[in-house]
Amino acid sequence: MLRTVRDAGPTVLVPLAWLVVAAAHRGLVSDHALLVAHVVMAAFIAGFAVTGWSEMDDGALRAWRAVLVVGLGVTLSGIAGFLLPSEPLRAVSIVGWMLLPAAGLLYTGYLFTAARTVYFGAGWLSVAGAVVYTISLCGDGPLVLVGIALVGAGQTVGIVDAAMRDDREQ
What we know:
Layout: H1 2-25, H2 31-52, H3 59-83, H4 87-111, H5 116-136, H6 143-169
């Protein structure tokens, strides 16, 4: 059961996380709720890394292990950003989580030629979303949500494809 949760959990958690980010930008989620979400996310990331460490020893999975390790640090910066409070630390967290998985997706596409289009598309969609999000923060207008939506779509496509491929290989 732990393996099922570890393998399928991100297919729900990734899009849910980006929906929460979008809701937060619309003022629908409190800072306290975001702090709690970061703490829960840090626990999930640590759990995924610990329980899957030995399985993530080579190829694309090794890159994703690095994403988890660096991502834990990025998430901890978000926690610090809510506790201090510090907008730059919060920005490191959100933009970090936009770009880290994008790098993992692009690297996966590089290695996994059978699904190169899926992973390159998902990765570049995430990069585009991060760029739109970062540029639009100056005005905090509707493009912020467009950037979040692009990142969410790219990362969701990538994680769902990975989960479906993993299920077919078992």
